[in-house]
Amino acid sequence: MNALLLPLSVLCGLILCATAVSLFAVHRAYCLLREMNARGSGKQLEGDAGLQSVRDSLEALAAQLHDLQNHPPVAQPPGLPKPGLNLSKRSHALRMHRRGEGAEQIAASLDLPRQEVELLLKVHRIVLSSV
Questions:
Q1: How far apart are CA 112 and CA 92, in angstroms?
Q2: Residue 93 contacts by C-beta under 8 Å, 6 or more apart in sequence?
Q3: 110 with 92: CB under 8 angstroms?
Q4: Beta strands in 1-131 (DSSP E)
Q5: Is-contact 97 109, C-beta < 8 A?
Q6: How far is the C-alpha of 111 from the C-alpha of 93, rounded, in Å?
Q7: What pLDDT sits at residue 82?
Q8: DSSP tag of 77
Q9: Is pTM, for the whole model, over 0.70?
Q10: Cβ contact 94:124 at 8 Å
């Protein structure tokens, strides 16, 4: 009988050990599941906050678009045309050049860009050399 009791006691020990391991595994799974649910709800709250900020931005943009559609921006009237080199300024610049004034002085007195005056004088020289 002692021979049967020993294996039976070993068998009971194995069953008890397997039951303990199974209970530990179930407890651990329950803890992990609870932790995942806590993280998931936290992420969902973070996602809801991000989604709410996107919604707020979208509503603000929609309001701006609505305002622009109802009140289109007033077009600025075109500015006065820049005084260019008209015929009188051209003749005046050539007269000043004949008197010996430089391109910078002519440009300053006639309120013209210096490059424009230099171009006028260069074209005038080319025309005079071809005649």
A1: 12
A2: 85, 106, 110, 112, 117, 120, 121
A3: yes
A4: none
A5: no
A6: 11
A7: 61
A8: P
A9: no
A10: yes
